[in-house]
Design goal:
Length: 222
């Protein structure tokens, strides 16, 4: 643990140093295990949901992360989880072909999911289909290059990603949804540490300085 930098985790209110995770400095909160992206997403979620009556909203969470599962379960009127392999979810389903009725969810969250999905455009279409008019979907992917690269097979060295999403990846959302917004690490106070440290990619499109990369949270609306 690096004791030289002190941060504040907005998810659990921990104050102190964050731990290194997979070579990324200042990444992991030692109290709740949230990562950089979770802290950014949490603050963005608080902002976009602040004027919504979440006690009347129905939510679906794909590949549910522990950092959000408990919070979502108390926040929404009805909270469901889904994954193709994970045990203990409400729906064990393929996001590319969902056996769920049209227009039934007010909110859908799928963070770092679509880079694993072969037919991600079909998955995005399915998310759009089951989202109510005016509904919100949060669909972050790890941006790693300028232009998206499709792989021939899942890459075991990249957690079995089937593509490297680029800055052009957001075009896939804009082709399907009526409205979209993008929030970056720069929108948060540095005290929350929402940046990714330690990338060796010098020409990364989200590079801030020699040490840090920004992250982005795409918010789309039906």
């Amino acid at each position: 643990m690096d004791v030289n930098k002190q941060y504040h985790c907005p998810l659990c209110n921990y104050k102190g140093s964050f731990m290194t995770f997979r070579g990324r400095q200042h990444a992991l909160c030692p109290q709740c295990s949230s990562l950089e992206r979770h802290r950014l997403q949490f603050v963005v979620l608080q902002n976009i949901l602040s004027d919504k009556n979440t006690s009347e909203m129905k939510a679906l969470h794909f590949a549910p992360e522990p950092a959000f599962r408990a919070w979502f379960s108390h926040l929404f009127y009805e909270y469901k989880t889904a994954d193709i392999e994970m045990e203990g979810v409400d729906f064990k389903v393929d996001i590319q072909d969902l056996p769920l009725a049209d227009r039934q969810f007010d909110f859908i969250f799928a963070s770092h999911v679509l880079e694993h999905i072969p037919d991600d455009r079909k998955a995005i279409s399915e998310i759009h289909r089951i989202l109510k008019p005016g509904g919100i979907a949060i669909l972050p992917v790890p941006i790693v290059c300028e232009k998206t690269i499709e792989y021939d097979a899942p890459d075991p060295e990249e957690d079995f990603h089937v593509r490297a999403p680029g800055m052009d990846y957001y075009d896939r959302y804009e082709a399907c949804f009526s409205k979209w917004e993008y929030y970056s690490s720069n929108s948060l106070p540095d005290i929350y540490q929402p940046y990714v440290y330690g990338s060796s990619v010098k020409d990364h499109p989200l590079r801030v300085d020699t040490e840090r990369l920004m992250d982005v949270v795409p918010v789309v609306y039906r």
